[in-house]
Structures are given as structure tokens and as C-alpha cells.
Design a protein that fits this description.
CATH architecture: 3-Layer(aba) Sandwich
Radius of gyration: 19 Å
Order of helices and strands: HHEHHHEHEHEHH
Shape: globular
Helix content: 25-40%
Structural class: alpha/beta
CATH superfamily: SGNH hydrolase
Largest sheet: 4 strands, parallel
Oligomer: single chain
CATH topology: Rossmann fold
Number of domains: 1
Length: about 325
């Protein structure tokens, strides 16, 4: 009965967070795009395209699966004891869009190096909004599918992580929430080991050094489970030398913004990067959301087009590139 109820529950989530083709994706701290609009949010958003960009016809070659080693944990995957580890209830709203990278993140990086993770790979952990049709996939498809405009400084990070942008993660599927990521029931039976969670499977197969963890929308039905499950995801990532990059979300389906507050607080406690996507989308019409208050407005990744940059998805992709660029440069910089 428990398994059946879980299946039914995820089915309900799918209808809310990933229903139909209405979904769509997105320098310096707090700066997203020179062409971003500051218009007052529209009460009635204009109709959105019904389909995302077509998927690439050929998938990037994936590395052979490699088992994670049993090397003793060298970096304690626990919350920090810093006095700055607490935030005011609404303090997350003022956190920068692009994260400032701490020394602790560099420690996680070098742990990943010691464990044999691929420094040129990242993973996506989340729901349908973490799949390549919406999130970052165009940046493996070539310059014909995106334009950087004034953000040409992002070209090196695009080239550095080729193969990860359009890759379909084993831990990113429609309806996924924080609990799904940790449940072997939802693992891909063709690629994952017996009793392996989607998170463990993704990390074993892809061997990433970085991971975008974008959860929360589908956790609205069981908000009490969100924080403990997120802690497990964060701690498992750190233990395995994967730098977790958390992200705030645009919707407020829980009505009190508590999920974003939790995400930001956990990022502060564990001293890991936070992409404050919520802040980046505030100047957009309807704050980057479609009329249902759940799905993100769609636009192509044309960062030099002012009209396109009024949509939530290109802003999400741009800010994600900026965050990855900031973290990558910080951990690989010479001492």
C-alpha cells in the first residue's frame, strides 16, 4: 500500500509541476542581463509557445560507469559552525544571484579530485525543469542555438563542460521531489544497480564534480520531509566530492515561501553555493511565471534579445551559467 500511495502521490505532483508542454528555462553578483526588463509584472501573461526546443539527435558520449571508491571521508559533510550560518526569515531574498564561493567549496573540489570525479562534468538533480529540453541543453548543441550578447565571458565555461549540458541526468525526471531522488524505486532499472538511488546512480555513472540541485516545487505536498531529505542529498554530495549548487525557485505553491527560505538556510549552513534564481526573476513580467503560478515562461537562449530576456527560462539558463562559471573559476584558481 505504501508503494501504491507513493505512485499516486507522484502522479498528482506530475500534474502540477510538469503537466503538458506549458513549461519552459535560464559577471557579477546580482547582475543578470543588460537587456532584462524592469516592467511591472503583467496580470495576464501572454500565451507561451507550446513546445520546447527539439532535443539533439545525438547524445554526447557518456563515460563508462565507475564505482565510487570506499576512500574514508576526508571532508566532514556536516553543517558549518560559522556564526553567519543563520538567516533572518526573509534574509534569503537579499542574497546575491550569483554565489560567492567559500574556501570550504574548494575543499570539496579537491576531495572530488582525490575520488576521481571528472572536473569537466556537472549533473542536474531535480524534476522536469532539470531536463535538457528546458535547462542548459542548448549549450551542447552549438552557437546556432544560443547567443551570449554581452556575456561572451561565459564561452569558456560552455566549452569546459561540453557533454554535460545536453545530457539527461539519471536524477532528473518529471514529478521528482527530494524524496524521489533518494528512493531506489525511482532509479533507472537499465543503468542503476540494485537498491541504488537515482542520486547515487547519477554520481556513479557520470562522476560529476558539480551538481545543480533544483528541488522544491514538487515538495509542496510534504513540506515536512523537504529539509531532512535535502540534508541527505547535500551530505551525500559532499561526501562523494560533488559540489552542490542549490537554487531557489520562482513559485510559492506552499504559500509562505518557506521552501526557498529552507534552501537558502541550508546553503548557508553547509557553506555551499546558492543560485538565487528567485531574485533574478523578480523584475520579469509576472516574476517569470506563467498564469498557473507554477510553470516558468519560455524563451530561447538569446541573451541579446530584450524581449526574450523578459522570460523566465532564458534568465534561469543565464544565471545558471554565471553560477557555474563563478564556482568553476573559484575552485580552479591558482593559490
Amino acid at each position: 500500500m505504501k508503494v501504491l500511495s507513493t505512485i499516486l502521490w507522484v502522479g498528482v505532483i506530475f500534474l502540477v509541476a510538469c503537466s503538458g508542454p506549458t513549461l519552459a528555462d535560464g559577471e557579477q553578483v546580482n547582475t543578470v542581463s543588460v537587456s532584462q526588463s524592469s516592467a511591472v509584472p503583467s496580470a495576464t501573461p501572454t500565451p507561451e509557445p507550446t513546445n520546447p526546443p527539439a532535443e539533439p539527435t545525438a547524445s554526447p558520449t557518456e563515460p563508462e560507469p565507475v564505482m565510487l571508491t570506499d576512500t574514508p571521508v576526508l571532508l566532514e559533510p556536516t553543517a558549518t559552525d560559522q556564526p553567519t550560518a543563520t538567516l533572518a526569515p526573509d534574509g534569503w531574498k537579499q542574497l546575491p544571484v550569483v554565489p560567492i564561493v567559500s574556501e570550504r567549496v574548494k575543499d570539496i573540489y579537491w576531495r572530488g579530485v582525490a575520488l576521481g570525479n571528472n572536473p569537466q562534468a556537472f549533473s542536474k538533480i531535480g524534476d522536469c525543469g532539470s531536463t535538457p529540453a528546458w535547462f542548459l541543453g542548448d549549450f551542447d548543441r552549438g552557437p546556432r542555438f544560443y547567443s551570449l550578447g554581452v556575456h561572451t565571458f561565459l564561452e569558456p565555461v560552455i566549452q569546459e563542460f561540453q557533454g554535460s549540458y545536453a545530457r539527461t541526468s539519471l536524477a532528473a525526471k518529471s514529478g521528482f521531489n527530494a524524496s524521489s531522488i533518494l528512493s531506489p524505486f525511482w532509479a533507472d532499472a537499465k543503468q542503476c544497480l540494485a537498491n541504488e538511488t537515482p542520486l547515487a546512480c547519477e554520481y556513479r555513472v557520470h562522476r560529476p564534480m558539480f551538481a545543480f540541485i533544483m528541488l522544491g516545487t514538487n515538495d509542496v505536498y510534504h513540506p515536512d520531509e523537504f529539509e531532512p531529505q535535502m540534508r541527505k542529498i547535500i551530505e551525500y554530495s559532499i561526501e562523494n566530492g560533488v559540489i552542490p549548487i542549490l537554487s531557489t525557485k520562482l513559485d510559492n505553491l506552499e504559500k509562505d515561501e518557506s521552501i526557498n527560505a529552507t534552501i537558502a538556510r541550508l546553503a548557508r549552513e553547509y557553506d555551499i553555493p546558492l543560485l538565487n534564481y528567485w531574485l533574478a526573476a523578480q523584475p520579469l513580467p509576472n516574476h517569470g511565471l506563467q498564469g498557473d503560478g507554477a510553470h516558468i515562461t519560455y524563451g530561447q537562449n538569446r541573451f541579446d534579445d530584450p524581449q526574450v530576456m523578459e522570460k523566465g527560462w532564458p534568465v534561469r539558463n543565464l544565471t545558471a551559467l554565471q553560477a557555474l562559471d563563478a564556482v568553476w573559476k573559484a575552485v580552479t584558481a591558482s593559490p
